[in-house]
Amino acid sequence: MNNEKPIDFTPEMRKTHTILAPMMLPIHFTMLEQILNRNGYHVELLRTTGRQIVDEGLKHVHNDTCYPALLVIGQMIDALKSGKYDPDKTALLITQTGGGCRASNYIFLLRKALKQSGFPNVPVISLNFASLESASGFSFTPAMILQALYAVIYGDLIMWVSNQCKPYELVAGSTQKVIDHWTDELCRQFQSSKFLHIRKNYRKILDDFAAIPRSSEQKVRVGIVGEIYMKYAPLGNNNLEDFLIKEGAEPVLSGLLDFILYCLKNSEVDYQLYGKGKKTRLLAALGLKYFVHVQNKMIRAVKEHGVFRVPGKFEDLEKGIEGVIGMGAKMGEGWLLTAEMMELIHSGVKNIVCTQPFGCLPNHIVAKGMTRKIKDRYPDANIVPVDYDPSATAINQENRLKLMLSNAKLAMQFEQKDAVVEPAAPGAAAQEQQPALF
Amino acid sequence: MNIKIGLDIGSTTIKTVVLDETDRVLYKSYERHLSRVREMALEKMEQLRSTLEGHSLKIAITGSAGLGVAKESGIDFVQEVFATAGAVKKYVPGTDVVIELGGEDAKIIFLKGALEERMNSTCAGGTGAFIDQMASLLNVDLKTLDELSLQYKKIYPIASRCGVFAKTDIQPLINQGADKENIAASIFQAVVDQTIAGLAQGRRIEGDVLFLGGPLSFLKGLQKRFLETLDLDEQHAHFPDMAPYFVALGAAEYCDGLYRQYTYDQLHEIFVKASKTTIKPQGLSPLFADDAAYQEFLSRHSRSDVEHRDLSSYRGKAFLGIDAGSTTTKMVLLSDDGKMLYENYCNNLGNPVHAVKAQLEEIYRQAGPGLVIAGSAVTGYGEDLMKEAFHIDLGLVETIAHFTAARHFNPDVDFIIDIGGQDMKCFKIKDGTIDDIVLNEACSSGCGSFIETFAKSLGYPIAEFAKLGLYAKHPVDLGTRCTVFMNSSVKQAQKNGATVEDISAGLAISVVKNALYKVIRAKSADEIGQNIVVQGGTFLNDSVLRGFEMELGRNVIRPAISGLMGAFGAALYAKANAPKQSATISPQELADFTHSSKAVNCNLCTNHCNLTVNTFAGGKKFIAGNRCERPVTGKASSQELPDMVDYKYQKLMSFESQSMEGPRGKIGLPMVLNMYENLPFWHAFFTKLGFQVVLSGRSSKSMYLKGQNTIPSDTVCYPAKLVHGHIKTLLEKGVKTIFHPCMSYNFDEKISDNHFNCPVVAYYPELINGNLDGVHKDGVQYLYPYLSLNDSKLFQKKIRRVLMDAGFTCTRREILEASDAAYASYRAFREDIEQTGRQALAYARENHKKTLIVAGRPYHVDPEINHGINKLLTAQGFVVVTEDCVSGLEDHERRGILNQWTYHARMYNAARYAATQDNTEVIQLVSFGCGLDAITTDEMRDILRSADKLYTQIKIDEIDNLGAVKIRVRSLLAAMNERERLSHEQ
């Protein structure tokens, strides 16, 4: 049974099959969905929610497997069982990073689950950077890669600035309106080469968001880092961004492109450290250079526009971890996760939620394992690790987030008072102020 | 006057503090709320009417259960740790560290230096609840438990990862007859260890420590354990009178910063409204649509019963069966024609010997003079103890006992599932023999007894509690991970207004789901079987039975004596295999029976087993808790069988004796993780270069405790946690250079798609560097370069650089020679292991011994990690080889998963090898928390099952007790023998 070849997604299936894919970042993935559909596929993102997803996951995936696998696979099986899709005309799409973490095995777990739940003939397509496996009927043309890259860039930009608007909007829903407008608009632009008019687009996007009426009150900013699915997917992190906004905080999330750059960078590091992948390295280095160039243009646009805080550069991430963790730590989110925490703190966001699936292996090292070191350098860093698991109660997570938020708000009050009362000796002022609050 | 009210609603208790303007305490209280959160809050308000009326009131709510109340009522909420920190700063300003334990959460606050506030991780919750449960397990109240603990003589090592793990260690101690005093103290010690390991995370707990929360203020024994462990004297440990109310006090103080003010009537109204709030529960489907469905269900199950016969009038031979389980004792007496003369199912109340004695007395009291016990058999945890105590004729493995019993009810039975108090056991039957055995691992244990303890805590007898679930409208979903998570989910459900009925049904469904999806891992009913027999005390609960049938979509057989099946099977077995003359204890002997027990440490080998010495009338002794026969017979096992686990370990440990003083000084290598694979390489490399190689030495529990407070992630595996202690040991040895490389890649053995190490093994040195201060102090250099050994040229280049940067300049030639020596040493070691392994296999073949391949990681040969399982295996007559002895005998084959880790590839190949061999089985050792093994275990199982082999997985962690492992190994042995017998018959 082990020698069986997996079911291929053939070129003919492009016409006949609906490809179901998991949702992770609502803005980015909606555009990517469009791009694939413009290029002859029929892709549908799974936007379902509900307890039955977890139940299917628990049934078909080993319960000690990480939560993202359980959710993604549960969601797919749930969709297939829903009767909405003809199993003979449905394929599934899943990413495969190819690192030394369990995540590279999701696709195999999915195939096992399909076999067990009576859908052995549903083809599964692997989307990977590491030439792990390929489907004969699924490929990215260079044009599509370019489109996808820009979808990610635009997505990162919209996510970045919208998070600076949503918590402050005076009219509820006004930020979402702009997000929706631009997601639609960009989807249209991907039909032609219009999406390449980046200067114009960036400026218009920034203008539109800047035009949203916002309050000027100061809110606590909270960075979200973590395992990639937990960090971004609302299904995974129980709508963490919304929760933070509701609690009066501003969520800060770095972009998806950083993760892609991190993957490319790892090829280079692998060669430097272990002499591995001489050929892939060159390609990766080329990609890295170009992608960084594209990212920098976007960053410059935000800077020149001058209204919003500027996202960090990838080079800054690399620099930030010097002396903290080695770049050789490349499994899961690896050094990137540590780097993101450092970058957040450097940019003044000292409050950080570190999301992870319960029992996440790389995060023992790169998240919980690095907290101490970060706190040694930045004693006022306010980091809360939150574990996600099918059996973990929401109240437990909420309570920990609230603790982090209370401390964040307290720290912010001191900062404000310091600024007004006693700018020369902030430490002493803080000392005196403290008891008065209670 | 302005009055401030702090209301702390925790998971089990409600605390109230009322302050006046001058912060004088007008009122304080601490009460259990039994989940009547909103009602209690209202009652409290009404009770305080005279104090509050006519004043201007400010109020803040805190606590995990307070969150919901605050949300609904609109009253200000303050997070409890935050509130505590505020009050501490005001009232006990000199405090350095605060430790607060509650029912659900444990918290620690560091005030000196950088403020840090930590709460336990999800997996380590339920401190107070755990103590409650343990008291109930020992059948004492909290006060007695506390008093007992102060009388202790000895503390047992108890796994401190979480309540479930701790219970797994405590249960067998009870069964072995250990003293309650010692158990009580050990329970508190486990709480202390868990708090320190989970929360200190590298920061030292020192200076003035303030202890807060209910358990820490009421339990003197717990206080004492904390003081001794943290090495605090009375001057520095503070247990303020306000300790139980401190969080509420914090909330009251928090009111100063609030604007909202209420009159008494306004506040009262808010609480009246809150108490009436009902949250629409989002529940599961009910178990029974109506009473008719339940009656049909009952009549269907009443068909499987055993005929009874009157004991007092019976004359002739009778056969006794005892099932000495973990929490319960079951006894059955059968007549010569197989009818039931006597049956009993009772909780052993922490003293199984006493339980059996009482029942035997009862049998002899009821029986007429003509009754002769012509044969007796015992099964279960307490098998050996009972055999000794009551001269029982026969002992048998639980699996065989249950199978014997199940076959009595349905000769075609093909699947048996038994859910007892502590364990779940499932057996698949094929062609009349046990074909597969699945036992739960630690995380799933205690589900059965959890329902009972929980019922008790609400004041219901278990039978009544179970009945309530039958008609639940919306059974709540309580998750499936473990009882700690379930407990926490129950609390949340209660706060959301779930009824007892819904919780009863929800618990039943959770237990069922845990069995199906975590233990059996079945995907469909067909995969399980056509003729399913369910048994065990937990299935006496109709809600559990119904939940099981619903989840499975198939009807099953539950014998009326479901809870007695082990004992029934034992009695049937005694009847079939009765000796000529039964030695079973006579009424006279029983009258003279005495029993006492004493705890001692065995010092005959490095395992240092905790023995319980039971003494019976006439000074006869029985020793429990041993792994091998040495403490009993005074010598090592009678025949020395080849044991590759031990061989490998000794071989590795012998390397240090080859170290020589060298011109470059000392270099320390920690004996952890990868070093169990690469030591021959590094030892030769550094020795050749002129270093004196110093090893950290053998792992031990005390070594683990040494580094425990620097572990940042408490859910990581035990082998990784041990690293901290090893590094500390090296530092203590005065080694100034410690070498511990990061290795993403392992050796490529050409049997896999890639050759990674797991993330923890690969990068743990990074974590050590970030969390263990000592490696940066006193001139110590901690070298943790990223290296790969696959390309010797590249390795030489890299290592030369690393050494140069560390101040050891080596010539290219020196490096080349050292590297050659290293590769040669590693190859020689591998060849030796493979050769010796093959000799062991040959020995087994020649001497007709059974072979067990212990498949794990290289570091699983460490006896502190495997807890001496190999000794237990050879004592059962197995030849033991390791996975890397045989992995080279198979080639690279495509697997159903991505085969990308070197160590795992070895295990797959070892399983494939076993699949081709007779008389060879595999036991897979899995460390708790190993995420990768979630993938490998299923694959291993597939490989072995497709070759009709049994798959046995043993999860290991800090838990030291091998009781469950022993049963598993014996079941495996019994199943192998049975198969062999059948194949001979054919």
Outline the fold blueprint:
The complex is a heterodimer of chains A (438) and B (986).
Chain A: H1 13-16, E1 18-22, H2 26-38, E2 43-46, H3 51-60, H4 67-81, E3 90-96, H5 106-116, E4 124-128, H6 142-165, H7 174-189, H8 198-210, E5 220-226, H9 228-232, H10 240-246, E6 249-252, H11 256-274, H12 278-305, H13 314-320, H14 334-346, E7 351-357, H15 361-377, E8 382-388, H16 394-421, H17 426-436
Parallel strand pairs in A: 1-2, 1-3, 3-4, 5-6, 5-7, 7-8
Helix pairs in contact in A: 2-6, 2-7, 3-4, 6-7, 6-8, 6-12, 8-12, 11-12, 13-14, 14-15, 16-17
Chain B: E1 2-9, E2 13-19, E3 25-32, H1 37-47, H2 49-52, E4 56-62, H3 66-73, E5 76-77, H4 80-91, E6 97-101, E7 106-110, E8 116-119, H5 127-137, H6 142-150, H7 163-176, H8 180-200, E9 209-212, H9 214-218, H10 220-230, E10 237-238, H11 246-254, H12 264-276, H13 291-301, E11 316-324, E12 328-335, E13 340-347, H14 352-366, E14 371-379, H15 383-390, E15 394-395, H16 398-409, E16 415-419, E17 424-430, E18 433-439, H17 447-457, H18 462-470, H19 483-495, H20 500-520, H21 525-528, E19 532-535, H22 542-552, H23 565-576, H24 587-591, E20 595-601, E21 610-616, E22 621-624, H25 630-633, H26 644-653, E23 666-669, H27 675-689, E24 692-695, H28 701-707, H29 718-732, E25 737-739, H30 759-771, E26 781-783, H31 792-805, H32 812-846, E27 850-855, H33 863-866, H34 869-875, E28 878-882, H35 883-886, H36 902-915, E29 920-927, H37 933-946, E30 951-956, H38 963-985
Parallel strand pairs in B: 1-4, 4-5, 6-9, 9-10, 11-14, 14-15, 16-19, 23-24, 25-26, 27-28, 27-29, 29-30
Antiparallel strand pairs in B: 1-2, 2-3, 6-7, 7-8, 11-12, 12-13, 16-17, 17-18, 20-21, 21-22
Helix pairs in contact in B: 1-12, 4-11, 5-7, 5-8, 6-8, 6-10, 7-8, 8-10, 16-23, 17-20, 18-20, 19-20, 20-22, 27-32, 28-29, 29-30, 31-32, 36-37
Give me a quick take on this structure:
The complex is a heterodimer of chains A (438) and B (986). Helices cover 55% and strands 11% of the residues of chain A. With 438 residues, chain A is α/β, with parallel strands linked by helices.
